[in-house]
């Protein structure tokens, strides 16, 4: 019954041929006066229908014996389709035809058209659905007074109307999904989503997690920092600190724009766990980002005698063995790494806090595997891809969300420029100028090796060309397929200023922090997503120099590429970029829904249906509190076993 029509056809009004508007769908009636199969110019079934006020040709390019029989001379038919002027006169191509008796009434409702699988047609589905609706015992689970407040009809009435709307209903309102019947379906779907997530949120509070008490080390560490925390960072840290000092597990998302200072907040939370006698695991999606975290955090915490271990797939067998022993014996208090952290051979002595950076880049099983390394650890997820408010209200209702909404002082605004790759020589001159003045530059390419299909500039080719064009300037290269030692050396040389220009793939998208870098060139920017462009742009603007990001593109540009480049050019606020990105791509792409296991909404649109989403949140809390049986019935009706996906 929730397999709703994709559109409707009006088979209720028979039009005379003199009334029809060419190029539009029409229903006409007449008697077949001529029918034959012709072979040229291509095999077709042709029939002539006498409609009383004129003749109409029916033409089938694809047909079956049953249609030949239907179009036999003397049969009275109703034909539905688009009428156009053909070679011999007015014609319908591939019309829907039905044999009728003289005076037979037309359909009292609009005719639903369904999406179908191969081997079944829309009319068969329509019959099955109507039979089910007539036999099904509907029960309205949602409290009636809530439905009345929202002006929503009962469920039975809504479904019956959507599957067979009376011809008196306003078709645009139904097709645009603004009709009260549609709003009822969308509300029920949003309510199921909210019930499932809020139920999981409540259940988490019945589990027992380590009590991580606030320590003096955190305060001493803060005093050693060369900068003061922003008020937004202080508020975020206070919230997280309170969470992990409670007896039930924290599951919080810490989000903030590029460069807002999420890492230092996470480290302070980690110190609270370490001082309480527990271990901390920090997992990042790329080796470059994980190693950057390791270097930075080790430098910060080594004066306090805290053992920090680095674990990645690229370690030698001996290095990995030593690291695993340190972790399992509890000597390592903070373990930083990539996917290697949740491998079977990794064992913690007492894992109290899990920190996952760029959490949407990890799958459900991966996050569960890392959580499973401790009994019930607290979990802090971080994202530099801000989640729009409506997305957080809807898909992240099972989490607590904290936002760092201000940048640390000293972050300079970044000027964004759009430049065609036909002006590459001018861009290279600009790069040379910056390097000779003592600045540093990133040059980002989307591919490592040549692809004939995409014909994109590669990092290796660009490295060779720039090394030749910029003689006297040290140029480095880093990409994901380099050996660990080569990659580490290339990054070290750029961080310390030995190389002035770093040619890289998008492996530097997150986490890399070089304050002296004031220019970024992104090749083939039209091929990249908004979140990725915003993340890359955030690698500059970290020092006192005025920073610029050049987005170099190739013609021709698709409409989607033009939209993305316009958005990134006009906006520097990550939240606004994320909102626009969601409008372009949908929530699933932003959340990494294939990774997260979140059931996507089929009917509701969280941007246009924000009033229903807000109401669903309120009603969900009320039903879980006062009507728990009805809440479970609603969940079973809408999600069935799929609600288990949400328990991550």
TrEMBL record:
It catalyses: Couples ATP hydrolysis with the unwinding of duplex DNA by translocating in the 3'-5' direction; ATP + H2O = ADP + phosphate + H(+). Pfam families: DEAD, Helicase_C, RecG_dom3_C, RecG_wedge. Keywords: ATP-binding, DNA damage, DNA recombination, DNA repair, DNA-binding, Helicase, Hydrolase, Isomerase, Nucleotide-binding. SMART domains: DEXDc (SM00487), HELICc (SM00490). One of its GO terms (biological process) is DNA recombination. Its EC number is 5.6.2.4. Residues 243-404 form the Helicase ATP-binding domain. Signal peptide: none annotated. It is an enzyme of class 5 (isomerase). One of its GO terms (molecular function) is DNA binding. Residues 437-588 form the Helicase C-terminal domain. It comes from the Bacteria. Belongs to the helicase family. RecG subfamily. Plays a critical role in recombination and DNA repair. Helps process Holliday junction intermediates to mature products by catalyzing branch migration. Has replication fork regression activity, unwinds stalled or blocked replication forks to make a HJ that can be resolved. Has a DNA unwinding activity characteristic of a DNA helicase with 3'-5' polarity. This is ATP-dependent DNA helicase RecG. It comes from Ferriphaselus amnicola.
């Amino acid at each position: 019954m929730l397999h709703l029509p994709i559109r409707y056809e009006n088979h209720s009004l028979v039009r005379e041929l003199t009334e029809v508007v060419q190029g539009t769908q029409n229903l006409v009636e007449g008697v077949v006066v001529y029918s034959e199969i012709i072979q040229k110019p291509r095999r077709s079934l042709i029939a002539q229908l006498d409609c009383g006020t004129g003749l109409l040709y029916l033409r089938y390019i694809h047909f079956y014996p049953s249609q030949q029989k239907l179009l036999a001379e003397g049969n009275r038919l109703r034909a539905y389709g688009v009428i156009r002027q053909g070679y011999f006169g007015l014609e319908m191509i591939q019309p829907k035809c039905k044999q009728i008796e003289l005076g037979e009434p037309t359909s009292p409702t609009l005719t639903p058209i369904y999406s179908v699988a191969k081997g079944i047609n829309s009319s068969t589905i329509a019959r099955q659905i109507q039979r089910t609706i007539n036999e099904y015992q509907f029960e309205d689970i949602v409290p009636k007074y809530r439905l009345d407040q929202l002006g929503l009809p009962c469920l039975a009435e809504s479904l019956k109307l959507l599957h067979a709307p009376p011809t008196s209903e306003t078709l645009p309102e139904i097709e645009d999904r603004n009709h009260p019947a549609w709003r009822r379906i969308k509300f029920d779907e949003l309510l199921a989503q909210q019930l499932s997530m809020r139920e999981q949120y409540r259940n988490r509070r019945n589990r027992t997690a380590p009590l991580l008490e606030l320590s003096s080390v955190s305060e001493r560490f803060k005093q050693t920092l060369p900068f003061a925390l922003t008020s937004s960072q202080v508020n975020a840290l206070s919230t997280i600190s309170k969470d992990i000092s409670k007896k039930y597990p924290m599951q919080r998302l810490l989000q903030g724009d590029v460069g807002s200072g999420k890492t230092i907040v996470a480290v302070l939370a980690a110190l609270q766990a370490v001082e309480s006698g527990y271990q901390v695991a920090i997992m990042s999606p790329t080796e470059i980002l994980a190693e950057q975290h390791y270097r930075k955090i080790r430098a910060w915490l080594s004066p306090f005698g805290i053992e920090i271990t680095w674990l990645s797939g690229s370690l030698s067998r001996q290095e990995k063995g030593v690291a695993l022993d340190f972790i399992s014996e509890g000597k390592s208090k903070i373990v930083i790494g990539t996917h290697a952290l949740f491998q079977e051979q990794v064992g913690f002595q007492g894992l109290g806090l899990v920190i996952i950076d760029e959490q949407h880049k990890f799958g459900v099983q991966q996050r569960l595997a890392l959580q499973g390394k401790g009994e019930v650890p607290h979990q802090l997820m971080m994202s530099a891809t801000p989640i729009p408010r409506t997305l957080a209200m809807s898909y992240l209702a099972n989490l607590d969300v904290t936002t760092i909404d201000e940048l640390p002082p000293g972050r300079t605004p970044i000027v964004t420029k759009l430049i065609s790759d036909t002006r590459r020589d001018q861009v290279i001159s600009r790069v040379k100028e910056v390097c000779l003045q003592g600045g540093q530059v990133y040059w980002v390419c989307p591919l490592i090796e040549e692809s004939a299909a995409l014909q994109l500039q590669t990092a290796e080719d660009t490295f060779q060309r720039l090394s030749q064009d910029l003689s006297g300037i040290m140029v480095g290269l880093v990409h994901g397929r380099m050996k660990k030692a080569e990659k580490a050396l290339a990054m070290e040389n750029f961080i310390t200023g030995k190389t002035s220009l770093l040619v890289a793939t998008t492996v530097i998208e997150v986490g890399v922090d070089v304050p002296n870098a004031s220019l970024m060139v992104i090749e083939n920017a039209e091929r990249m997503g908004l979140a990725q462009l915003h993340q890359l742009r955030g690698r500059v603007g970290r020092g006192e120099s005025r920073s610029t990001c050049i987005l170099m593109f190739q013609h021709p540009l698709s409409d989607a590429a033009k939209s993305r480049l316009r958005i990134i050019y006009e906006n520097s606020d990550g939240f606004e970029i994320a909102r626009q990105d969601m409008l372009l791509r949908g929530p699933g792409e932003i959340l990494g829904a294939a990774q997260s296991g979140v059931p996507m909404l089929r009917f509701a649109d969280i941007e246009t249906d924000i009033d229903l989403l807000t109401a669903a949140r309120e009603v969900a809390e009320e039903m879980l509190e006062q009507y728990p049986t009805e809440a479970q019935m609603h969940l079973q009706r809408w999600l069935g076993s799929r609600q288990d996906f949400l328990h991550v």
